[in-house]
Amino acid sequence: MGYAPCFSVKDTATSIAFYKKLGFDVDSSGAKPGDDIHMMFYEGEFCAMLYSNADLKNWLPVLADTPIGFAGMHYLGVDGLEAVYERFARHAEIVKPLTQDHTGIRLFYFRDLDGYVIGVNEKSTVNAV
After folding, report:
1. What pLDDT does residue 71 have?
2. Three-state secondary structure along 72-119?
3. d(CA 9, CA 27)
4. Is 13 strand, coil or helix?
5. To 5 degrees, how large is the angle CA 93–CA 47–CA 42?
6. 109, 110, 76: which is closest to 92 by C-alpha?
7. Residue 20: which H helix or E strand, with range?
8. pTM (two decimals)
9. Cβ distance 40 to 48 under 8 Å?
10. Which one of 9, 107, 110, 126 has the minimum C-beta count within 10 Å?
11. Residue 84: closest CA among 48, 123, 112, 116
12. Exposed/middle/buried for residue 79 (C-beta within 10 Å: 0-12, 13-18, 19+)
């Protein structure tokens, strides 16, 4: 596994429902009993984790005073950027609509329920750069 963000969230059930509307799959089978952590997949590929804020701060007490959300962003590479944009726009706050960056990659940004900003780009264009 490469780099994978772990999102600290207020309510995992609500976050799971939100991400499922966007087309993500969630697998909770790897969690130990009583551990509120969930693996997220997009287009069959592992991409992130959702972790109950309370459980995360219990696991890593150094995060006790860190608020949910942060100044930063994560990226998700997808196939069929236009269709993904249309689906996400129906269910999520788009904070920057489809645009092109300085390298020519088309992308957009959305904010999830806990304030995380996620950039979405066409997977094939990133692999070509």
Report:
1. 59
2. CEEEEEECCHHHHHHHHHHHCEEEEEEEECCCCCEEEEEECCCCCEEE
3. 16
4. helix
5. 70
6. 110
7. helix 12-21
8. 0.77
9. yes
10. 126
11. 123
12. exposed
